Amino acid sequence: MSDKKMQGQPDQDPINKPAHGATQPIRRQLLKGTITIPVIMTLHSGAALARTSNLVGRTENPGDAKIEEGRYACAYDAVEDSSGKYDLGDSPQLELVESPLDCIGDPDDPEKPGGGILISVSAYNSLQGRSFFTD
Amino acid sequence: MNHWYSVFFSSLRIENWDQEYTVFQPASGKTHFLNEMGLRILLLLDQAPATLDTVCIKLAESFAVTNDDRFRQQIAVTLQRYEALGLIVNTRNAPL
C-alpha cells in the first residue's frame, strides 16, 4: 500500500519538505504549542459556505440598493425563509433597474408588476460571479 | 485485532508551514490543520496498517513522550476523528 503511493508522489514527504516562510501569529500557537498530543482542526468545504451565502436580506431603504445614479440592485425569485432571509437559489436572478418601483412593483402602474426585492450593494457585490444577470 | 490504515492518502495535498500542516482532502473538499504528531499518524498508517498499540508505541518513540493510558486515550480519540473524516478506516469496518 505504502510503497506504491509514495513512489507515485515523490513530493509528498511533508515532514521533511521545507516549510513555507511564515511568521508565527498568536492564533497558530495552538498547533505549535501542543506537540505531545495530535491536533486536528477542520475547515469545511467552501462550496457549502458559498451556497449559504445565497441567502440575502431585503433592504427597505432604496438608497442602500443604489449601485449608481439610476441603477438599483434587484433580485427575483427570492423565497423568504422562517428567519426573514431570502433564498435566491443556486442561480440568483439579478437585475439592475432604473427605479426601485421597477423591482418591487407599482400598484398604480400595471406595466410595473414588480416581483423582486431590493438588495444592498454589498449583497449584490457578494453575488457577483454566481448569478444570472438580466441587465 | 483491529488495524487502522489510511485511505486515499495519495490524493491529499499536504503543505508544511513550519511544522504545522495544511491537508486538503479533495474527496470532501475540506482542509485540515494538523500539528506534526497529527500528520505523523497519517503517515504511519499509510506505510502499513497498524493497531492502536503500535501507533502509540511509534509515536511515543518519535516524540519522546510517555506511552501511558492518557496518551493512549488521546490517540484513540484522534483515530476515531480521522475515521469520521474519511482519512482512515478500521479493519473491523472495512477488512483488508
Radius of gyration of chain A: 24 Å
Q: Multimeric state of these chains?
A: heterodimer
Relative helix content of chain B: 40-55%
Beta-strand residue percentage of chain A: 15-25%
In what range is the share of β-strand residues of chain B?
A: 15-25%
SSE class of chain B: alpha+beta
Q: Which whole number gives the mean pLDDT of chain B?
A: 92
Total helices of chain B: the number is 3
Q: Tally the helices of chain A: what do you get?
A: 5
Radius of gyration of chain B: 13 Å
Unreliable residue stretches of chain B: none
Describe this protein's structure.
The complex is a heterodimer of chains A (135) and B (96). Chain A has 135 residues and is α+β, with helices and mostly antiparallel strands. Helix content of chain A is 21%, strand content 21%. In chain A, strands 3, 4, 7, 8 and 9 form a five-stranded mixed β-sheet that branches. In chain A, strands 2-6-5 form a three-stranded antiparallel β-sheet, with no helix packed on it. The longest helix of chain A has 7 residues. Chain B has a three-stranded antiparallel β-sheet. Chain B has a two-stranded antiparallel ribbon with strand order 1-5. Chain B is globular, with a radius of gyration of 13 Å. The mean pLDDT of chain B is 92. Chains A and B meet through helix 1, strand 1 and helix 3 of A and strand 2, strand 4, helix 1 and helix 3 of B.
Features:
A: 135 residues; alpha+beta; 5-stranded mixed beta sheet; 3-stranded antiparallel beta sheet; 5 helices; disordered N terminus; B: alpha+beta; two-stranded antiparallel sheet; globular
Summarize the structure.
The complex is a heterodimer of chains A (135) and B (96). Chain A is an alpha+beta fold and 135 residues long. Chain A contains 5 helices and 9 strands, in the order ααβαββββββαβαβ.
